[in-house]
Predict the 3D structure of the following.
Amino acid sequence: MRQLRHRADHFTVLVRQVPLCPEHNTRACAVDHFFSKHHRFSYHSYQMLYDGKDLEYLLGKQKKLKKELEDKRRTDMLSNGSQEHKQISTSEEKLREITNMICHLQNGTMLREKELPVAFVTFKSRRSAALAAQTQQHSNPLELITEMAPEPRDVSWRNLAIPQKILPLNKIGVILAAALLTIFFAIPVTAVQGIAKYEKLKKWFPPAMVIEFIPGLSSVVTGYLPSAILKGFMYIIPFAMLGMAYLGGSISKSKEEIKACNMVFYFLMGNVFFLTLISGSLLDEIGEYLTHPRDIPSHLAAAVSAQGEFFMTYILTDGLSGFSLEILQLGLILFDIIRSYTYGRGKERTPYLFSFPYFRVIPTVSLSIMIGMIYAVVAPLMLPFLVGYFCLGYIVYFNQMEDVYETTYDTCGQFWPSIHHYIFVSIILMQITMVGLFGLKSKPSAAIATVPLILITIAYNEYCKIRFLPSFKHFPIQTAVEIDEEDEKNGEMEAHCVDAATAYNQHQPCLERVKISDESITNLSHPLLGTESI
């Protein structure tokens, strides 16, 4: 509780679809009038969002000019030429002009013309904010839609500018794009799996018979190479899915990563697990499953048994090469080398840190959990390799979280429901495989006895949804009151409330304060517009 008391999002509610005030024709007045009237004793202040594309462009241009000016001044100190002096004076004039334009656009009158129907409303207590976020505010449910605000560092500012009416279309488009990517990616995955089957490889590509004459090459080509190629393909998928999730219109970066996690997991389950299990012609196999659905468990059990060697190699490849690349950060090293010898040459190096890539790590580890659960029944000898994989992964990622990655935002465990769902899917697949395995072993009584396990697992999952899932979606009133009481005892309630009122203003990109002169810079701790004065 003490660790959560400083969070600004516990005092703040995100309000969308703000209507225009009929008296003053501004959305800011509508927010202030509504919450002052209907939340008279708990409402504190508000902060509007603005369409700041022009401001963000000018701010980026100003930063670029500042860097160019610094480089020119260094060059001038070394050369002492008149030409350099003229270029410096020209750049300084451009910089002053852009700075004045930014200050003009950031004044109250200009910002009111760029208001979006979105606002952050701050309350005097966590309890009041939680009640406002979980109740319908307006008689029209499509106006003044409220929810708990994300952490200031976690806000996806550009997505908040997307109109509420367009969001369903964005979500449908993202789902369709992810489904098409999953389906069409089956083509390269199927080609890779053909390498693992040497007899079929010889039919498709007769020159491959040459590898029989080189000792040891056949086992490398059919064993390690498919897993390595597949791992290379899968490295780019999480970033593509994250880009799609960004287009989905999520209000926070963490929600984008959670959506990307879900899409990547189902992509891996479809293209790495199920597509690997399907042997022969893909269309023939799908047709067989559709015409004889009762045979799915037995087909699944037979396919799982046949592909044990491939998945063992996949786990070893992921464990040895994947964790090694994670420690080396090869991508960042290559980026730094390219930057040092190209556009960043001669410039002062600045440290750059990134947040932990949940969207890439969680689905990959969840796939390994699913493979381990299924093969615990079919091929128990794989379990020691999986134990080693998870132990090594724990050491690697513990080090990365502590010393490499930066915590850019805190979700307070919002990824756990997704991880629970992945484990549930893995258990269901394991139990279906058990039914098929007992059928192949001609043990009908054991297969029938396994069916209730599936029903019990589904029932337990539904119970977990009812019991635990609401705690991840809503802020409990009881917890809010307990933290409020603790703050009141310590006399910190007012300070935390004031911090929450200015937190979102400081992080909104278009409201970034600019340096007017070399001697004076405005204080970033104070908002550009008074949150109570509009």
